[in-house]
Design goal:
Number of domains: 1
CATH topology: Alkaline Phosphatase, subunit A
Low-confidence stretches: none
Number of strands: 15
Number of helices: 15
Largest sheet: 8 strands, mixed
Mean pLDDT: 94
CATH class: Alpha Beta
Structural class: alpha/beta
Oligomer: single chain
Order of helices and strands: EHEEHHHEEHHEHHHEHEEEEHHEEEEHHH
Helix content: 25-40%
Strand order of the largest sheet: 5-4-6-1-7-9-2-10
CATH superfamily: Alkaline Phosphatase, subunit A
């Protein structure tokens, strides 16, 4: 085992689905760098987000608590500054903590425990996207996901998302050098947490030309099941389609293929960034002392069941990649089938940092891997909860994964139950099947034991109403936005010429 606590590099993409990576079995994917990490480390084959939406998923990940526990329900909900995050906990334990890139924090606290935040976010931090469960879906709000992203998909020479991610990659590169400089100058090692978070492959699907061209001769599979489920069995899918405009505009097969190719190209673009970060750790002599984690905040339906984007409990939307790589004494390598979730990241980081565990619903991924390594069946029936409390529904939607079973409940909607072992594509709900009646009763009781659905619904509605008042007031008069603006850096030679040059140089050991 390393003689000191490892550095931790957490790389997060946005809307990167597990099924679009070579490491998770996609033969069309061009992800050699992520695949190489998967070969060396721990791969969690059944990893889920705890809500398939950006801001609450990330707030949940950072606190180790469910969105309903922290009151962060949707993309227009402020994340309370008083909530401890893994950045707070590692910083208090002596880690240097830095955030580079996207985290979709809403509210005036744009750091949430990170000592440094080296870029702004790509989206605003204001209360701009507050859902309204009292509003009919055909009265669309300006910020809803839109079908145009599918119809307009294709190559971009430049885009806001490319500009952002290129800056994130550059800042991550330089920050790693800065950590090496600090250690070199002080003669002491301070472990660090670097969270590097990209916006790709999130829609709009607009990859660079070089990545698009990688798929010239690649047969990217069409959606396996593009048919829209029956509205009587799955009204949520129909709500999401209506919200995004797919109920009135149906993409042609050429539209679908172009959008999927653009998505795969954007994933390949992220893979390049992952490879460069890994290579930089090697160049700086940091790789042997660093644990790398690759994940996403949720997936993308990519045309399955007539859906795009996220917001759905189906596997393509809620399942994510989760790969952990580090010294074998710390990270047991292999593939693991125990259901896990983003909630498990905080206890994982605490264990890596030698920080005592805190009371939270998650379990360290390292502990999960150790247990499964001893007993292949260990953890097979672990329960994972997925909440959806945002736009595209009128009531709380809750999903319980237990082993191979997935149970979906939303007041007013028919229950859904999928046996993922027998039906991995989630084509047939068994909720009304007499053979599964006892299982449905058990899973319903498990949710009832966790939730008072009426109370949760009232909490969400009250939160929406409060935030709508605040959001409207803040648009009047002089606006004061919450977007993070990084302070200017005093990086280059200023006054102390020779010492500045000496500090800035990290010599190549082979020169």
């Amino acid at each position: 085992m390393t003689s000191h606590r490892p550095n931790i590099v957490l790389i997060q993409a946005d809307q990167m689905a597990a099924q679009a990576l070579g490491a998770y079995g996609d033969a069309a994917a061009k992800t050699p760098n992520i695949d190489r990490l998967a070969q060396e480390g721990a791969v969690f084959d059944r990893a889920y987000c705890n809500t398939p939406l950006c801001a609450p998923s990330r707030a949940s990940m950072m606190t180790g608590l469910l969105p309903s526990q922290i009151g962060c329900f949707d993309n227009g909900d402020d994340f309370a500054a008083s909530l401890p995050t893994f950045a707070h906990r590692l910083r208090a334990a002596g880690y240097h903590t830095a955030l580079i890139g996207r985290m979709h924090f809403i509210g005036p606290d744009q750091q949430h425990g990170f000592e440094e935040r080296l870029t702004t976010d790509v989206y605003p931090a204001d209360l701009d996207m507050v859902p309204d469960w009292t509003r009919p879906l055909d009265q669309r709000l300006q910020w809803y996901h839109d079908a145009d992203a599918v119809f307009a998909a294709g190559v971009s020479t430049a885009s806001v998302q490319q500009d952002f991610d290129d800056e994130v990659g550059f800042r991550a590169f330089r920050h790693l050098a800065d950590r090496a400089r600090v250690d070199q100058a002080s003669g002491e090692r301070q472990p660090f947490l670097m969270v590097t978070s990209f916006i790709h492959p999130h829609d709009p699907y607009e990859p660079p030309r070089a990545h698009w061209d990688r798929f010239d001769d690649v047969e990217i599979p069409d959606p396996a099941h593009p048919e829209v489920p029956d509205i009587a069995q799955d009204p949520h899918t129909h709500r999401l389609r209506a919200m995004s405009g797919f109920d009135v505009r149906e993409p042609s097969i050429d539209d679908v293929r172009r959008a999927r190719r653009a998505y795969y190209a954007a994933v390949s673009y992220i893979d390049d960034h992952v490879g460069r970060i890994r290579d930089r750790l090697d160049e700086l002599g940091l790789a042997d002392d660093t644990v790398i984690i690759v994940t996403s905040d949720h997936g993308d339906m990519l045309g399955e069941k007539g859906l795009w984007f996220k917001m759905s409990p189906y596997e393509q939307s809620s399942r994510i990649p989760l790969i952990v790589v580090g010294p074998e004494q710390i990270v047991p390598p292999g593939r693991f089938e125990t259901p896990v979730a983003l909630l498990d990241l905080m206890p994982t980081l605490l264990e890596l940092a030698g920080v005592p565990p805190v009371e939270a619903p998650g379990t360290s991924l390292l502990e999960t891997a150790r247990r499964e390594g001893v007993d292949a069946g260990e953890g097979a029936d672990r329960e994972i909860v997925i909440e959806y409390l945002a736009e595209g529904t009128y009531r709380p939607q809750l999903t319980l994964v237990r082993g191979s079973l997935k149970f979906v409940a939303c007041p007013g909607d028919p229950d859904q139950l999928f046996d993922l072992e027998a039906d991995p594509d989630e084509l047939r709900s068994r909720a009304d099947d007499p053979e599964y009646a006892e299982v449905v009763a058990q899973l319903r009781a498990a949710l009832d034991a966790r939730y008072d659905l009426d109370r949760l619904e009232q909490r969400v509605l009250a939160s929406q109403a409060r935030r709508q008042v605040v959001a409207d007031a803040l648009t009047r008069g002089r606006a004061q936005h919450w977007d993070h603006e990084p302070p200017p850096e005093q990086r280059y030679v200023r006054g102390d010429f020779w010492n500045a040059l000496e500090y800035g140089t990290i010599s190549d050991p082979e020169r």
